[in-house]
Design a protein that fits this description.
36% helix, metal-binding, TIM Barrel, Elp3/MiaA/NifB-like radical SAM core domain-containing protein, binds iron/sulfur cluster, alpha/beta, globular, binds S-adenosylmethionine, eight-stranded mixed sheet, metal ion binding
Length: 339
């Protein structure tokens, strides 16, 4: 332990650890900053991955997500890694998000034999022209993979709660949302419609910055090279601290920088935390609050949801459309090349 981490509280573990096993992605979603990362893309070494899992065995870890930027099925070793996590952290909930484009029948069979607790498939729309314009890949292959995964045999073996997720633009019609909801209902899966996050101002989104604390400060996010990033919105790891190559997961979570973020968010000072005062991530921080603070945060979150409808079926407002996100990606791409 070095001097920076000497006063670590080993009794304060993260509720969730995310590991970016790859930063590569087979899609090019116009709303996702993965298209414009300023760091090199690649996959995590086996040695580092296994070291992080070993660290996680030192405390009770509620949930683990082996992905961050990129798509897990762009990591050639993802199935081995999922199996490794299951074997070494059998009591930790294993969650995965994927666009399912790379999740073919062979991989689905193996995934089912490993088992998951939660699987979210980011399908975004069932309109094939919009899907292609939004994600840069054809819908037909994704849909075929999804249908196979949802067959009784595979989902029975997989044992996961399955959610299909739609990212809602400000021009996503109610018809498009209803088609998506009908599809989910007919297949007996959960549905989730989410508005756009602004990635600290990098992506256009009309959702305001909440005043309450953000739930992301009670997780630990580790990038491909082992460096810690503030959260999934800090896609280039600009606000991170330390690396899992040198420090344990518990040391990193209890690092003075991490604790300062938690303190600011827990004491109603989100706007003082850079870059959190510009980030519209709307899920509330409830862990570690007094009963009064928790009740207040719940009320603020409910008011935010009623006013802004960040989740669920939402009337189009027309400000962040697929078209203007396309032109924005071009400018984000330029900024990255220049930097
Ligand atoms: C960053 S992706 C990584 C996992 C995987 N590639 C996928 O598509 O599910 C995680 C989730 O974030 C969503 N996402 C990406 N950019 C977003 C944005 N600007 N606003 C809201 N959700 C976004 C994706 O659609 C996906 O559901
Ligand atoms: S407010 Fe935004 S930038 Fe800050 S921790 Fe939450 S998601 Fe990350």
């Amino acid at each position: 332990m070095n001097s920076e981490t000497a006063d670590i509280d080993m009794n304060d573990p993260p509720r969730l650890v995310t590991i970016e096993t790859t930063s590569r992605c087979n899609a090019r979603c116009v709303f996702c900053p993965n298209n414009a990362l300023s760091r090199d893309k690649g996959s995590m070494s086996t040695e580092l991955f296994e070291k992080i899992i070993e660290d996680c065995k030192q405390f009770p870890l509620y949930e683990i997500e082996p992905f961050l930027q990129g798509d897990p099925f762009s990591d050639p070793q993802i199935l081995d890694r999922l199996e490794y996590i299951r074997g070494h952290l059998p009591d930790t909930r294993l969650r995965l998000y994927t666009n399912a484009y790379g999740l073919n029948e062979r991989k689905a069979d193996r995934l089912a034999s490993i088992g998951l607790d939660d699987l979210t498939i980011s399908i975004n729309t069932l309109d094939s022209a919009r899907y292609e314009a939004m994600m840069g890949i054809p819908l037909a292959r994704t849909l075929a993979n999804v249908e196979y995964l949802l067959s009784d045999r595979i989902r029975g073996q997989l044992g996961a709660q399955i959610t299909l997720r739609m990212t809602c633009f400000d021009d996503t019609s109610l018809h498009e949302q209803d088609e998506f909801l009908r599809f989910c209902e007919s297949r007996g899966v959960e549905s989730s419609i989410s508005g756009l996050y602004n990635y600290k101002g990098h992506i256009y989104s009309d959702l305001p910055v909440p005043s309450y604390g953000c739930e992301h400060v009670t997780r630990l996010d580790i990038l491909v090279d082992g460096s810690v990033t503030l959260c999934c919105m800090d896609h280039n790891g600009e606000y991170g601290w330390g690396t899992a190559r040198d420090l344990s997961v518990l040391e990193l979570y209890n690092h003075q920088v991490a604790r300062r973020y938690r303190d600011l968010h827990r004491t109603g000072r989100r706007e003082e935390a850079d870059p959190c005062g510009t980030c519209n991530m709307f899920w509330p921080l409830l862990d570690g609050l007094s009963p009064e603070q928790e009740a207040l945060t719940r009320a603020e979150f409910e008011a935010y949801v009623v006013k802004n409808v960040p989740i669920g079926r939402r009337r189009p407002s027309g400000s962040a459309t697929l078209g203007n996100l396309h032109s924005q990606q071009v400018s984000i791409g330029r900024r990255t090349v220049d930097s």
